[in-house]
Amino acid sequence: MSAPQTLEHTRYAVTDGVATVTLNRPDKMNAWTGTMDQEVYALMKAASADDAVKVIVLTGAGRGFCAGADMDNLLAIQAAAKDGSGNSGIAEGDDDRRIDPGVPAAFGGRYSYFASVPKPVIAAINGATAGMGMAIALFCDLRLWSSAGRMSTIFAKRGLIAEWGLTWTLNQLCGPAAAADLLFSARFVGADEGLRLGLANAVYDEAVFEEEVMNYARTMASTVSPRSLRVMKRQLWNDVFADLGTVLDRAETEMKATFGTEDFKEGVAHFLEKRAPQFTGR
Question: Which pTM value belongs to this model?
Answer without folding.
Answer: 0.88
